[in-house]
Fold this sequence. Notes:
Blueprint: H1 2-30, E1 44-47, H2 50-55, E2 64-66, H3 74-87, E3 93-97, H4 106-112, H5 114-124, H6 130-139, H7 141-160, H8 166-169, H9 183-191, H10 207-222, E4 226-231, H11 243-251, E5 259-261, H12 280-296
Parallel strand pairs: 1-2, 1-3, 3-4, 4-5
Helix pairs in contact: 1-7, 3-10, 4-5, 5-7, 6-7
Amino acid sequence: MKKFFKKIAFFLLSVIAFLIVDEVFINNRLNNNELYKIDRSIDVLILGNSHPECSLNDSLINHSINFSQSAECYFYTYYKLKKLVEANPHIKTVILEYTNTVFRKEMDNWLFGEQYLGSKYPKYSQLISIKDNSLLFYKNPGPYLIAYKDALKAKGSFLLRRNKCVYNELDWGGYSYLVRDKIQQIKNDIQKSNIQKLNPDEKLTSTLNISNLKKIADLCKANNLKLILFRSPLHPLYVKDFETELTNLLKSDLHDIPFWDYSNYQLDDFEFADLEHLNHFGAKRFSKVINLRLEQEGLLTKKQ
């Protein structure tokens, strides 16, 4: 029995020592602001999930950079934004996707699910607090440990190379040039009843995702950043679930934050990739609309 407890104690001490080495030596090096610098001409950060990833072509929006990424919940967006703002004080404006999907309970799976822990956690592990690491471990210990191991490999690989840009090396997102056009196929499937619509009465929400949204709002306020919540164009056939929740939150906790709602912005079918994403044709037209609005509202202050 004594041998068993000695082995357990040795194991725990080894884990603690390993975590200390990771935190003190590896993470400290990777938290260097110089590794997160972006061009000083950039005024505007674009953040969110696949909606802005596909709808906003930052090459057509002056002084902007798109860091959106598919299946990204606000948990990771918060840490991404926090580091980018800390390393780049010239950032003035944040455009953040705020759409119906952010309320869905599946957002919890985007954080704790095995697939998403494996794909998202290694990108941001060096930034995540001990408290939030503990939360991830508590919710899904097995996949978390695997993701932690993968994160160590990614961090070690980065430190061994001469690359000096973490967000490029670890893939923090960007504009996605979609070529597909599935609207006619979707219409045909709807007529054949092959597509099951979302249930608008479903009321299970992700309180954790909304809590992280509020943290983003507080972060922007603390850093004197102009936060703009925005909703990309959605096809008329798209079912807007949680519309009441989206509106109520805007009226309460987010009442002082502007909301640019383009969900009903009219585009042709060929400009949609599917019911909720734009392809490159739609993104080209819509990005110019956003660029013009930023200019009109005085949010692009640098000379052309």
